[in-house]
């Protein structure tokens, strides 16, 4: 059953407080606010990496609130940091006032970024962060032409959907930008599964005769696109093309920062890129809403006039971010992401070797994925992928979906995941693979 099916069911006429939460959800939220599962999950408590639902069932969380709960749940030192801030009575002030935690966090991120003369602007989400980066790039260059990658996702606003390469996540036909899509190495700019023989040459041909681009925006590992890692050599060639046009290089690190990729603190370090702008959000504050932009001062300062953010960089969220970064570094969670990720990826590859309907097990650190396909044709099978997610949930494992065709299982536990939890998740994934293995063809 899909979210659309749920919306199309007759509404319950019982008093509001007596109706199931699922029915109340569809009554007051838009149809496009989708939920996973035929019977959506209602988390009511959590500890470690385990989420307990409204029926008292425990679930091992291997999607982390879409890669946001970096540390998992119930972390004592994280909670103590929030309590100290709450004890001051100040949860919010806005950027019209000096905020100690905001300045300390900005100093730390500017230093970590490796960007010369870096400044930081805080917002509430990855969408807002990418909006701000694109605004600054257009002001800095005097152009509204943006290069983006196929199968990319950069947010849900008019500007960020305009530069997102996943057709299903680009709902409006209107755009404030002239957008040129470059192949991610897996999908062509026209959307088929056969990328150009030389994607960089194809991009240069597309740019010929057009207005100079303001920006090239890339995800070092594509998130909603199915945890696909574009080839390093290709991204480096794109970066040189952007530099030749004096375009700003924006690295969207909303899902890849803070050591999640294992081998690198920032995802762009996997490709040896030197961004002018880094955007971030999700995992920085372990679930509290916080995003931002790190950029060269001349780029961010090119936004004319004044601006504020009412909630961006508020004291509680910045305190949460500082505590999260401390915990990641103090417990060497980047190393855990690498070793745990390698172990889980090896298990996914073994499963794919045993089950022809599992294909292309891949990933970086704790951003792992495997595609679900029809084993006879090799075509994407999104219905089977949704069935796998349902079966995993029934067995006590929460994972995500994604990919251009919606047939990719996305696996991204908190950075604190343990070896025993990896083994338990592997057991459940293997059981789901066996359960949904197509019957052998008969002669």
TrEMBL record:
InterPro entries on file: Aminotrans_3 (IPR005814), PyrdxlP-dep_Trfase (IPR015424), PyrdxlP-dep_Trfase_major (IPR015421), PyrdxlP-dep_Trfase_small (IPR015422)
Region (Disordered): 1-20
Top class in the EC scheme: transferase
Entry's Gene Ontology molecular function annotations: alanine-glyoxylate transaminase activity; pyridoxal phosphate binding
UniProt entry keywords in alphabetical sequence: Aminotransferase, Pyridoxal phosphate, Transferase
EC id: 2.6.1.44
CC cofactor: pyridoxal 5'-phosphate
Subunit-level organization: Homotetramer.
Alphabetical list of PANTHER family matching this protein: ALANINE--GLYOXYLATE AMINOTRANSFERASE 2, MITOCHONDRIAL, PTHR45688
Family: Belongs to the class-III pyridoxal-phosphate-dependent aminotransferase family.
Protein name stated in the entry: alanine--glyoxylate transaminase
Organism of this sequence: Streptomyces actuosus
